[in-house]
Design a protein that fits this description.
Elements (H helix, E strand, L loop, with lengths): L2 H12 L12 H20 L1 H5 L8 H26 L5 H9 L17 H18 L8 H29 L3 H20 L11 H6 L7 H19 L9 E3 L4 E3 L5 H11 L3 H14 L1 H18 L1
Helix pairs in contact: 2-4, 4-7, 6-7, 6-8, 6-10
This protein binds 3-hydroxybutanoyl-coenzyme A.
3-hydroxybutanoyl-coenzyme A (3HC) binds next to helix 2, helix 4, helix 6 and helix 9.
Protein name: Ring-1,2-phenylacetyl-CoA epoxidase subunit PaaA
Organism: Microlunatus soli
GO molecular function, one term: phenylacetyl-CoA 1,2-epoxidase activity
């Protein structure tokens, strides 16, 4: 590393400017970006599974059309984010193989089952809501392609969050059975949604460096707190409660106090022992294998085109 290059890199970070693909960057900066953006992309693609399971069973054409659009959006988010990762010198194919081999992660939230139709609304409201809390600051992340991908993703996540909330509000105006379905779904997804923000700052090996490099603009705990503060009034408006006896407004802090997530459960799910980890990876592997002929045909066609072009 030339001192001049390091100086230039540090100056760009210090003035909150963007690092672009052709700029010099420390190898560790490149490595942690590939790690985080690839995981983000994997999360979008794996996240299609829990919701996709409800497309054929949606209760109306309108709900089916909305859910189809949302799942297609998630595929698009995966595409933007794999493309951003490829600007760092890795390939989508390598990343997919690392995901399938369990050498790269994806968000823990998608390892929970979606047995109830209300889960489609809860995922939109809470999971996409948490994603918005975490992704809006990423629009200002120091790596150009990542930040620019976030701008469109955040706009589409807002639609995801609104449609989920509206679905639940409709059910809450329905029968007692529908209201119970919503509350049961919220009870299952509340704590896993808090875990989406990552471990407590004190147990986060990447946060300090990611903040120093302007990759992260807020810490895990700060964003988790923001999400709780945002969600409680929405739950009250919906008429549902969160399964946390310690949840209460703290006027001194001007924030909600809330209980401690089960970090044993969190690390167990992250390590692959969640309710659906195996099923999600097997599904992804099947889709990858089933798509091999398309990749081979496209590669053969591209070679012919190059040959003809001489
Ligand atoms: N699920 C799985 N792994 C997690 C995790 C979670 N919820 N939270 C943390 N981890 C992993 C980290 O990846 C890291 O492991 P690694 O070093 O092997 O990558 C380890 O646990 C320690 O966590 P850190 O806090 O040190 O890691 P980060 O600084 O990377 O912070 C993060 C974790 C907040 C998730 C950060 O990576 C991030 O902001 N990522 C981008 C946003 C994202 O991926 N959101 C989840 C996807 S949500 C989504 O797509 C939903 C929507 O489309 C529906």
């Amino acid at each position: 590393e030339e001192p001049a290059q390091t100086e230039e890199f540090e100056a760009i970070i210090a003035r909150n400017d963007r690092i672009e693909p052709r700029d010099w960057m420390p190898a560790a900066y490149r490595k942690t970006l590939i790690r985080q953006i690839a995981q983000h992309a994997h999360s979008e693609i794996i996240g299609m599974q829990p919701e996709g399971a409800w497309i054929t069973r949606a209760p109306s054409l309108r709900r089916k059309a909305i859910l189809l659009a949302k799942v297609q959006d998630e595929a698009g988010h995966g595409l933007y984010l794999y493309s951003a990762t490829e600007t760092l010198g890795t390939s989508r194919d390598d990343l997919t193989r690392m995901l399938i081999m369990g050498r790269q992660k994806y968000s823990s939230i998608f390892n929970y089952p979606t047995p109830s139709y209300a889960d489609v609304g809860t995922i939109g409201w809470l999971v996409d809501g948490a994603a918005i809390c975490n992704q809006v600051p990423l629009c200002r992340t120091s790596y150009g392609p990542y930040g620019r991908a976030m701008i469109r993703i955040c706009k589409e996540e807002s639609f995801h969050q609104r449609q989920g909330y509206e679905l639940l509000a409709t059910m809450m105006r329905g029968t007692a059975e529908q209201q119970a379905m919503v509350q049961e779904s919220v009870n299952r997804f509340w704590w896993p949604a808090l875990m989406m923000f990552g471990p407590p700052d004190g147990d986060s090996p990447n946060t300090a460096q990611s903040m120093a490099w302007g990759i992260k603009r807020d810490t895990n705990d700060a964003l988790r707190q923001k999400f709780v503060d945002m969600s409680v009034p929405q739950a009250e408006a919906l008429g549902v409660t969160f399964p946390d006896p310690d949840l209460r407004w703290n006027a001194d802090r001007d924030h909600y106090d809330f209980g401690e997530p089960d970090w044993e459960e969190f690390w167990s799910v992250v390590k692959g022992n969640g309710p659906c980890n195996q099923q999600r990876i097997e599904h992804r592997k099947r889709a990858y294998d089933d798509g091999a002929w398309v990749r081979e045909a496209a590669t053969a066609h591209a070679a012919k085109v190059r040959e003809r072009a001489g």
